[in-house]
Design goal:
Layout (H helix, E strand, L loop, with lengths): L2 E5 L5 E2 L14 E5 L1 H4 L5 H9 L7 H5 L27 E2 L2 H7 L3 E6 L9 H15 L4 E4 L3 H13 L3 E6 L5 H9 L3 E5 L3 H15 L2 E2 L5 H17 L7 E5 L4 H15 L8 E7 L4 H7 L25 H11 L2 E5 L1 H13 L6 H15 L8 E6 L7 H8 L19 H14 L2
Parallel strand pairs: 5-13, 6-7, 6-9, 7-8, 10-11, 10-13, 11-12
Antiparallel strand pairs: 1-2, 1-3, 4-5
The structure holds ligand F0G.
Ligand F0G binds next to helix 6, helix 10 and helix 14.
Protein backbone atom coordinates (compact mmCIF):
# COMPACT_ATOMS: atom_id res chain seq x y z
CA UNK A 1 0.00 0.00 0.00
CA UNK A 2 1.25 3.50 -0.68
CA UNK A 3 -1.73 5.59 0.37
CA UNK A 4 -5.33 4.99 1.35
CA UNK A 5 -8.24 6.97 2.75
CA UNK A 6 -8.80 6.48 6.44
CA UNK A 7 -11.64 7.71 8.64
CA UNK A 8 -10.44 10.15 11.29
CA UNK A 9 -13.22 8.92 13.60
CA UNK A 10 -13.49 5.11 13.26
CA UNK A 11 -10.31 4.27 11.27
CA UNK A 12 -12.19 2.46 8.46
CA UNK A 13 -10.17 2.47 5.22
CA UNK A 14 -11.11 3.06 1.57
CA UNK A 15 -9.17 3.00 -1.69
CA UNK A 16 -8.01 6.35 -3.06
CA UNK A 17 -9.39 5.68 -6.56
CA UNK A 18 -12.92 5.81 -5.09
CA UNK A 19 -14.72 9.17 -5.05
CA UNK A 20 -15.47 9.54 -1.37
CA UNK A 21 -15.28 12.45 1.07
CA UNK A 22 -16.76 11.00 4.29
CA UNK A 23 -16.82 7.59 5.94
CA UNK A 24 -19.97 5.47 6.24
CA UNK A 25 -19.95 6.47 9.94
CA UNK A 26 -20.05 10.17 8.98
CA UNK A 27 -16.44 10.87 9.99
CA UNK A 28 -14.07 12.86 7.77
CA UNK A 29 -11.33 11.08 5.84
CA UNK A 30 -7.57 11.50 5.82
CA UNK A 31 -5.10 10.48 3.17
CA UNK A 32 -3.11 7.99 5.18
CA UNK A 33 0.55 7.38 4.30
CA UNK A 34 2.46 4.29 5.36
CA UNK A 35 4.90 6.15 7.60
CA UNK A 36 6.81 2.98 8.55
CA UNK A 37 7.49 2.18 4.90
CA UNK A 38 8.46 5.79 4.19
CA UNK A 39 10.78 6.21 7.16
CA UNK A 40 13.92 4.67 5.57
CA UNK A 41 13.26 6.52 2.32
CA UNK A 42 12.72 10.06 3.62
CA UNK A 43 15.27 12.28 5.27
CA UNK A 44 16.19 15.96 5.52
CA UNK A 45 18.97 15.55 2.98
CA UNK A 46 16.53 14.35 0.29
CA UNK A 47 14.31 17.42 0.65
CA UNK A 48 17.24 19.83 0.96
CA UNK A 49 18.77 18.34 -2.19
CA UNK A 50 15.59 19.06 -4.11
CA UNK A 51 15.76 22.70 -3.06
CA UNK A 52 19.20 22.91 -4.62
CA UNK A 53 18.43 20.76 -7.68
CA UNK A 54 18.33 22.42 -11.09
CA UNK A 55 14.87 21.78 -12.54
CA UNK A 56 14.69 20.04 -15.91
CA UNK A 57 11.44 20.08 -17.93
CA UNK A 58 10.51 16.46 -17.14
CA UNK A 59 10.65 16.89 -13.39
CA UNK A 60 9.95 20.63 -13.23
CA UNK A 61 6.55 20.42 -11.50
CA UNK A 62 7.93 18.23 -8.75
CA UNK A 63 11.00 20.35 -8.09
CA UNK A 64 9.83 23.92 -8.71
CA UNK A 65 6.69 23.57 -6.64
CA UNK A 66 6.78 24.09 -2.90
CA UNK A 67 4.08 21.43 -2.71
CA UNK A 68 5.33 18.66 -4.98
CA UNK A 69 8.84 18.83 -3.59
CA UNK A 70 7.35 16.86 -0.69
CA UNK A 71 5.33 14.54 -2.95
CA UNK A 72 5.97 11.30 -1.02
CA UNK A 73 4.16 12.88 1.94
CA UNK A 74 1.39 14.39 -0.17
CA UNK A 75 0.38 12.39 -3.23
CA UNK A 76 2.85 10.08 -4.92
CA UNK A 77 2.11 10.55 -8.65
CA UNK A 78 4.04 10.78 -11.89
CA UNK A 79 5.25 14.29 -12.80
CA UNK A 80 3.20 14.44 -16.01
CA UNK A 81 -0.08 13.99 -14.08
CA UNK A 82 0.48 17.10 -11.98
CA UNK A 83 -1.49 20.33 -12.49
CA UNK A 84 0.82 23.02 -11.09
CA UNK A 85 1.50 26.74 -11.57
CA UNK A 86 3.92 26.09 -9.65
CA UNK A 87 2.83 27.15 -6.14
CA UNK A 88 4.50 27.52 -2.75
CA UNK A 89 8.07 28.71 -2.15
CA UNK A 90 6.54 31.63 -0.28
CA UNK A 91 8.70 34.09 1.67
CA UNK A 92 9.25 34.14 5.39
CA UNK A 93 9.36 37.82 6.32
CA UNK A 94 10.87 39.36 9.42
CA UNK A 95 10.22 43.04 10.09
CA UNK A 96 11.36 44.76 13.29
CA UNK A 97 8.42 47.17 13.36
CA UNK A 98 5.84 44.37 13.30
CA UNK A 99 7.82 42.21 15.72
CA UNK A 100 8.08 45.17 18.11
CA UNK A 101 4.38 45.92 17.83
CA UNK A 102 3.54 42.30 18.61
CA UNK A 103 6.07 42.17 21.49
CA UNK A 104 8.51 39.60 20.12
CA UNK A 105 12.04 39.58 18.69
CA UNK A 106 11.56 36.51 16.58
CA UNK A 107 8.28 36.89 14.73
CA UNK A 108 8.24 35.60 11.15
CA UNK A 109 5.45 36.02 8.63
CA UNK A 110 4.98 33.14 6.20
CA UNK A 111 3.28 34.92 3.32
CA UNK A 112 0.90 32.53 1.63
CA UNK A 113 -0.71 35.48 -0.14
CA UNK A 114 2.29 35.33 -2.50
CA UNK A 115 1.03 32.15 -4.14
CA UNK A 116 -0.08 32.23 -7.81
CA UNK A 117 -3.71 33.20 -7.14
CA UNK A 118 -2.91 35.13 -3.97
CA UNK A 119 -3.75 32.68 -1.20
CA UNK A 120 -2.66 29.42 0.44
CA UNK A 121 -5.52 27.64 -1.32
CA UNK A 122 -3.27 27.05 -4.34
CA UNK A 123 -1.33 24.49 -2.34
CA UNK A 124 -4.43 22.41 -1.73
CA UNK A 125 -5.84 22.99 -5.17
CA UNK A 126 -2.82 21.75 -7.11
CA UNK A 127 -3.31 18.42 -5.33
CA UNK A 128 -7.13 18.43 -5.49
CA UNK A 129 -7.24 19.18 -9.22
CA UNK A 130 -4.47 16.67 -9.94
CA UNK A 131 -6.53 14.02 -8.14
CA UNK A 132 -9.66 15.17 -10.02
CA UNK A 133 -7.82 14.60 -13.28
CA UNK A 134 -6.56 11.17 -12.17
CA UNK A 135 -10.15 10.22 -11.30
CA UNK A 136 -11.41 11.49 -14.67
CA UNK A 137 -13.79 14.02 -13.07
CA UNK A 138 -16.23 15.57 -15.56
CA UNK A 139 -16.55 18.77 -13.48
CA UNK A 140 -15.28 20.16 -10.16
CA UNK A 141 -17.03 22.37 -7.60
CA UNK A 142 -16.64 24.11 -4.26
CA UNK A 143 -18.43 26.46 -1.90
CA UNK A 144 -16.23 29.35 -0.89
CA UNK A 145 -15.77 32.60 0.95
CA UNK A 146 -13.69 33.54 -2.10
CA UNK A 147 -10.14 32.25 -2.08
CA UNK A 148 -10.95 28.60 -2.63
CA UNK A 149 -13.14 29.55 -5.60
CA UNK A 150 -10.36 31.70 -7.09
CA UNK A 151 -7.85 28.86 -6.76
CA UNK A 152 -10.27 26.22 -8.03
CA UNK A 153 -11.17 28.38 -11.03
CA UNK A 154 -7.51 28.86 -11.95
CA UNK A 155 -6.37 25.26 -11.53
CA UNK A 156 -9.45 23.83 -13.24
CA UNK A 157 -8.83 26.18 -16.17
CA UNK A 158 -5.25 24.94 -16.33
CA UNK A 159 -6.44 21.32 -16.35
CA UNK A 160 -9.28 21.99 -18.81
CA UNK A 161 -11.96 20.75 -16.39
CA UNK A 162 -15.20 22.77 -16.03
CA UNK A 163 -15.49 24.45 -12.61
CA UNK A 164 -18.61 25.51 -10.71
CA UNK A 165 -18.26 27.70 -7.64
CA UNK A 166 -20.92 28.44 -5.01
CA UNK A 167 -20.40 31.71 -3.18
CA UNK A 168 -22.48 33.55 -0.59
CA UNK A 169 -24.13 36.40 -2.56
CA UNK A 170 -22.69 39.82 -1.68
CA UNK A 171 -20.39 38.39 0.99
CA UNK A 172 -17.10 37.80 -0.77
CA UNK A 173 -14.33 40.29 -1.44
CA UNK A 174 -14.27 41.89 -4.90
CA UNK A 175 -10.82 40.64 -5.89
CA UNK A 176 -11.85 37.03 -5.28
CA UNK A 177 -15.12 37.26 -7.19
CA UNK A 178 -13.29 38.92 -10.08
CA UNK A 179 -10.80 36.03 -10.16
CA UNK A 180 -13.48 33.33 -10.32
CA UNK A 181 -15.14 35.12 -13.23
CA UNK A 182 -11.87 35.88 -15.00
CA UNK A 183 -10.59 32.29 -14.78
CA UNK A 184 -13.85 31.12 -16.32
CA UNK A 185 -15.60 29.28 -13.46
CA UNK A 186 -19.39 29.08 -13.57
CA UNK A 187 -20.17 31.28 -10.59
CA UNK A 188 -23.36 30.68 -8.60
CA UNK A 189 -24.19 33.43 -6.12
CA UNK A 190 -26.17 31.62 -3.44
CA UNK A 191 -28.85 33.47 -1.46
CA UNK A 192 -27.45 32.58 1.97
CA UNK A 193 -24.18 32.49 3.88
CA UNK A 194 -21.11 30.27 3.34
CA UNK A 195 -22.54 27.54 5.56
CA UNK A 196 -25.68 27.34 3.38
CA UNK A 197 -23.57 27.30 0.19
CA UNK A 198 -21.46 24.51 1.70
CA UNK A 199 -24.50 22.35 2.43
CA UNK A 200 -25.81 22.92 -1.08
CA UNK A 201 -22.56 22.02 -2.85
CA UNK A 202 -22.23 18.80 -0.83
CA UNK A 203 -25.65 17.70 -2.07
CA UNK A 204 -24.88 18.74 -5.63
CA UNK A 205 -21.64 16.76 -5.65
CA UNK A 206 -23.22 13.68 -4.08
CA UNK A 207 -26.13 13.59 -6.48
CA UNK A 208 -24.87 15.08 -9.73
CA UNK A 209 -21.49 13.38 -10.21
CA UNK A 210 -19.38 16.49 -9.74
CA UNK A 211 -16.07 16.24 -7.86
CA UNK A 212 -16.06 18.27 -4.62
CA UNK A 213 -12.95 20.34 -3.95
CA UNK A 214 -13.67 21.96 -0.62
CA UNK A 215 -11.26 21.20 2.20
CA UNK A 216 -13.66 18.41 3.14
CA UNK A 217 -11.79 16.67 0.33
CA UNK A 218 -8.79 14.99 2.00
CA UNK A 219 -6.46 15.60 -0.97
CA UNK A 220 -6.78 19.36 -0.52
CA UNK A 221 -5.44 19.13 3.01
CA UNK A 222 -2.46 17.07 1.86
CA UNK A 223 -1.35 20.01 -0.27
CA UNK A 224 -1.88 22.49 2.53
CA UNK A 225 0.44 20.47 4.78
CA UNK A 226 3.30 21.79 2.65
CA UNK A 227 3.00 25.20 4.37
CA UNK A 228 4.32 23.50 7.50
CA UNK A 229 6.91 21.47 5.57
CA UNK A 230 8.28 24.68 4.06
CA UNK A 231 8.30 26.51 7.38
CA UNK A 232 10.17 23.70 9.10
CA UNK A 233 12.65 23.25 6.25
CA UNK A 234 13.13 27.05 6.17
CA UNK A 235 14.15 26.81 9.85
CA UNK A 236 16.64 24.05 8.95
CA UNK A 237 14.41 21.43 10.54
CA UNK A 238 14.50 23.14 13.95
CA UNK A 239 10.87 24.24 14.19
CA UNK A 240 9.70 27.49 15.77
CA UNK A 241 8.00 27.38 19.19
CA UNK A 242 4.64 28.43 17.76
CA UNK A 243 2.77 28.48 14.48
CA UNK A 244 -0.19 30.88 14.53
CA UNK A 245 -2.86 30.84 11.83
CA UNK A 246 -6.34 32.22 11.13
CA UNK A 247 -9.11 29.65 11.38
CA UNK A 248 -12.43 29.50 9.53
CA UNK A 249 -13.50 26.21 8.02
CA UNK A 250 -10.58 24.62 9.95
CA UNK A 251 -9.02 22.88 6.94
CA UNK A 252 -5.65 24.49 7.52
CA UNK A 253 -5.75 23.89 11.26
CA UNK A 254 -6.37 20.20 10.49
CA UNK A 255 -3.64 20.08 7.83
CA UNK A 256 -1.02 21.70 10.09
CA UNK A 257 -1.55 19.14 12.83
CA UNK A 258 -1.33 16.23 10.39
CA UNK A 259 1.86 17.63 8.86
CA UNK A 260 3.54 18.01 12.25
CA UNK A 261 2.42 14.56 13.37
CA UNK A 262 3.93 13.01 10.25
CA UNK A 263 7.19 14.97 10.47
CA UNK A 264 7.62 13.90 14.08
CA UNK A 265 6.86 10.25 13.35
CA UNK A 266 9.32 10.23 10.48
CA UNK A 267 12.03 11.68 12.70
CA UNK A 268 12.35 14.78 10.48
CA UNK A 269 11.77 17.05 13.48
CA UNK A 270 12.51 16.53 17.15
CA UNK A 271 10.14 19.05 18.70
CA UNK A 272 6.58 19.89 17.70
CA UNK A 273 5.58 23.57 17.60
CA UNK A 274 2.37 24.58 19.35
CA UNK A 275 -0.38 25.55 16.92
CA UNK A 276 -2.55 28.55 17.82
CA UNK A 277 -5.73 28.96 15.77
CA UNK A 278 -7.18 32.48 15.73
CA UNK A 279 -10.83 33.20 15.05
CA UNK A 280 -12.69 36.46 14.56
CA UNK A 281 -14.84 37.18 17.61
CA UNK A 282 -17.99 37.32 15.46
CA UNK A 283 -17.17 33.98 13.79
CA UNK A 284 -15.79 32.00 16.70
CA UNK A 285 -17.51 28.57 16.92
CA UNK A 286 -14.20 26.72 17.31
CA UNK A 287 -13.06 29.14 20.02
CA UNK A 288 -16.30 28.58 21.92
CA UNK A 289 -16.00 24.80 21.57
CA UNK A 290 -12.38 24.99 22.78
CA UNK A 291 -13.43 27.07 25.80
CA UNK A 292 -15.91 24.33 26.67
CA UNK A 293 -13.23 21.62 26.47
CA UNK A 294 -14.73 20.41 23.15
CA UNK A 295 -17.64 18.84 25.03
CA UNK A 296 -20.06 20.57 22.70
CA UNK A 297 -19.80 21.40 19.00
CA UNK A 298 -20.86 25.04 18.74
CA UNK A 299 -22.30 26.44 15.49
CA UNK A 300 -23.50 30.00 14.98
CA UNK A 301 -24.47 32.73 12.54
CA UNK A 302 -21.11 34.35 11.69
CA UNK A 303 -20.31 38.02 11.09
CA UNK A 304 -16.89 39.64 10.66
CA UNK A 305 -15.02 42.08 8.44
CA UNK A 306 -12.70 39.17 7.63
CA UNK A 307 -15.10 37.63 5.10
CA UNK A 308 -12.67 34.76 4.34
CA UNK A 309 -13.35 33.34 7.80
CA UNK A 310 -17.01 34.31 8.11
CA UNK A 311 -17.99 30.72 8.90
CA UNK A 312 -20.30 29.48 11.65
CA UNK A 313 -20.30 25.70 11.06
CA UNK A 314 -16.71 24.68 10.22
CA UNK A 315 -16.43 21.41 8.33
CA UNK A 316 -13.05 20.14 9.60
CA UNK A 317 -14.06 20.46 13.26
CA UNK A 318 -13.04 16.94 14.36
CA UNK A 319 -9.78 16.93 12.42
CA UNK A 320 -8.92 20.33 13.93
CA UNK A 321 -9.52 19.08 17.49
CA UNK A 322 -6.95 16.40 16.74
CA UNK A 323 -4.42 19.13 15.90
CA UNK A 324 -4.99 20.71 19.30
CA UNK A 325 -4.16 17.37 20.94
CA UNK A 326 -1.13 16.58 18.79
CA UNK A 327 0.49 20.00 19.17
CA UNK A 328 -0.66 21.13 22.61
CA UNK A 329 -2.51 23.74 20.60
CA UNK A 330 -4.97 26.43 21.55
CA UNK A 331 -7.66 28.64 20.08
CA UNK A 332 -8.01 32.37 20.65
CA UNK A 333 -10.22 35.13 19.26
CA UNK A 334 -9.70 38.75 18.19
CA UNK A 335 -12.11 41.58 17.46
CA UNK A 336 -12.61 43.08 14.01
CA UNK A 337 -10.92 46.28 15.24
CA UNK A 338 -7.86 44.28 16.32
CA UNK A 339 -7.81 42.50 12.96
CA UNK A 340 -7.92 45.75 10.98
CA UNK A 341 -5.25 47.45 13.10
CA UNK A 342 -2.96 44.41 12.68
CA UNK A 343 -3.63 44.51 8.96
CA UNK A 344 -2.70 48.20 8.86
CA UNK A 345 0.60 47.36 10.59
CA UNK A 346 1.41 44.57 8.12
CA UNK A 347 0.32 46.71 5.17
CA UNK A 348 2.18 49.76 6.47
CA UNK A 349 5.63 48.15 6.34
CA UNK A 350 5.06 47.28 2.68
CA UNK A 351 4.20 43.59 3.10
CA UNK A 352 0.39 43.66 3.10
CA UNK A 353 -2.30 41.02 3.60
CA UNK A 354 -6.06 40.56 3.59
CA UNK A 355 -8.10 40.95 6.80
CA UNK A 356 -8.37 37.24 7.69
CA UNK A 357 -4.59 36.90 7.50
CA UNK A 358 -4.10 39.78 9.90
CA UNK A 359 -6.04 37.80 12.50
CA UNK A 360 -2.89 35.67 12.89
CA UNK A 361 -0.83 38.77 13.76
CA UNK A 362 -3.52 40.21 16.03
CA UNK A 363 -3.84 36.82 17.74
CA UNK A 364 -0.09 36.54 18.26
CA UNK A 365 -0.04 40.00 19.83
CA UNK A 366 -2.85 39.04 22.16
CA UNK A 367 -1.17 35.78 23.20
CA UNK A 368 2.07 37.67 23.93
CA UNK A 369 0.22 40.34 25.93
CA UNK A 370 -1.51 37.75 28.08
CA UNK A 371 1.75 35.85 28.68
CA UNK A 372 0.88 32.66 26.79
CA UNK A 373 3.62 33.27 24.22
CA UNK A 374 6.89 34.35 25.87
CA UNK A 375 8.82 37.28 24.37
CA UNK A 376 11.90 35.11 23.76
CA UNK A 377 10.02 32.48 21.79
CA UNK A 378 10.10 32.07 18.01
CA UNK A 379 6.77 32.44 16.28
CA UNK A 380 5.64 32.01 12.70
CA UNK A 381 2.34 33.72 11.87
CA UNK A 382 0.81 32.60 8.59
CA UNK A 383 -0.49 35.35 6.29
CA UNK A 384 -3.03 33.43 4.27
CA UNK A 385 -4.07 35.91 1.57
CA UNK A 386 -2.93 38.92 -0.43
CA UNK A 387 -3.69 42.57 0.29
CA UNK A 388 -5.18 42.86 -3.21
CA UNK A 389 -7.97 40.40 -2.46
CA UNK A 390 -10.10 42.82 -0.48
CA UNK A 391 -9.58 46.43 -1.57
CA UNK A 392 -12.96 47.42 -0.12
CA UNK A 393 -11.98 46.64 3.48
CA UNK A 394 -8.63 48.39 3.11
CA UNK A 395 -10.20 51.45 1.54
CA UNK A 396 -12.91 51.66 4.20
CA UNK A 397 -10.28 51.52 6.97
CA UNK A 398 -8.25 54.39 5.56
CA UNK A 399 -11.10 56.66 4.53
CA UNK A 400 -12.98 57.02 7.79
CA UNK A 401 -15.71 54.43 7.37
CA UNK A 402 -13.99 52.36 10.05
CA UNK A 403 -14.61 54.15 13.35
CA UNK A 404 -11.83 52.55 15.44
CA UNK A 405 -9.01 52.79 12.86
CA UNK A 406 -5.82 53.45 14.87
CA UNK A 407 -3.48 53.70 11.85
CA UNK A 408 -5.67 55.23 9.13
CA UNK A 409 -3.76 56.85 6.26
CA UNK A 410 -6.34 59.23 4.86
CA UNK A 411 -6.03 60.49 1.29
CA UNK A 412 -6.03 64.29 0.71
CA UNK A 413 -7.69 66.29 -2.04
CA UNK A 414 -5.52 69.08 -3.48
CA UNK A 415 -5.53 71.60 -6.29
CA UNK A 416 -3.17 70.73 -9.14
CA UNK A 417 -0.55 73.36 -8.28
CA UNK A 418 2.80 73.35 -6.48
CA UNK A 419 1.82 75.83 -3.78
CA UNK A 420 -1.04 73.62 -2.64
CA UNK A 421 1.24 70.69 -1.79
CA UNK A 422 4.36 72.55 -0.65
CA UNK A 423 3.59 72.75 3.06
CA UNK A 424 2.36 69.18 3.09
CA UNK A 425 5.60 67.88 1.54
CA UNK A 426 7.68 69.88 4.02
CA UNK A 427 5.69 68.41 6.86
CA UNK A 428 6.17 64.83 5.54
CA UNK A 429 9.94 65.27 5.22
CA UNK A 430 10.20 66.86 8.66
CA UNK A 431 8.19 64.14 10.42
CA UNK A 432 10.29 61.38 8.83
CA UNK A 433 13.56 62.80 10.18
N1 LIG B 1 -7.46 32.93 5.54
C1 LIG B 1 -7.96 33.09 4.30
C2 LIG B 1 -7.42 34.22 3.49
C3 LIG B 1 -8.95 32.21 3.83
O1 LIG B 1 -9.42 32.38 2.60
C4 LIG B 1 -9.42 31.19 4.67
C5 LIG B 1 -10.47 30.28 4.22
C6 LIG B 1 -8.87 31.07 5.94
C7 LIG B 1 -7.89 31.96 6.35
C8 LIG B 1 -9.28 30.01 6.89
O2 LIG B 1 -8.80 28.76 6.53
O3 LIG B 1 -10.94 27.57 6.29
O4 LIG B 1 -8.78 26.35 6.41
O5 LIG B 1 -9.73 27.49 8.43
N2 LIG B 1 -11.12 30.42 3.15
C9 LIG B 1 -12.06 29.42 2.62
C10 LIG B 1 -12.49 29.82 1.23
C11 LIG B 1 -13.14 29.06 3.53
O6 LIG B 1 -13.59 29.44 0.81
O7 LIG B 1 -11.73 30.47 0.53
P1 LIG B 1 -9.61 27.45 6.94
Amino acid sequence: MTIQLQCARCAAVYATHQVRYVCDCGGLLDVSHDLEALRPELNRHLFDGRLEGAPTPDVAPTINSGVWRYRELILPVMADAIVSRPEGNTPLYHHPRISGWVGLDALYLKHEGENPTGSFKDRGMTVGVTQARLLGAQAVACASTGNTSAALAAYAALAGIPAIVFIPAGKIATGKLAQALAYGARTLQVAGDFDAAMQLVRRVCDELNVYLLNSLNPFRLEGQKSIVFEIVQGFRWRPPDWIVLPAGNLGNTAAFGKALYELKHLGLIESVPRVAAVQAAGANPFYQSFQGGFRERVTLQAETVATAIRIGAPVSYERAIRTMGWTDGLVTQVSDAEIMDAKAMVDGVGIGCEPASAAAVAGTRKLVAEGTIHPDQTVVAVLTGSLLKDPTATFAYHTGEWPDAAYANRPFSVEAELGAVQSMIEEIIESSQ
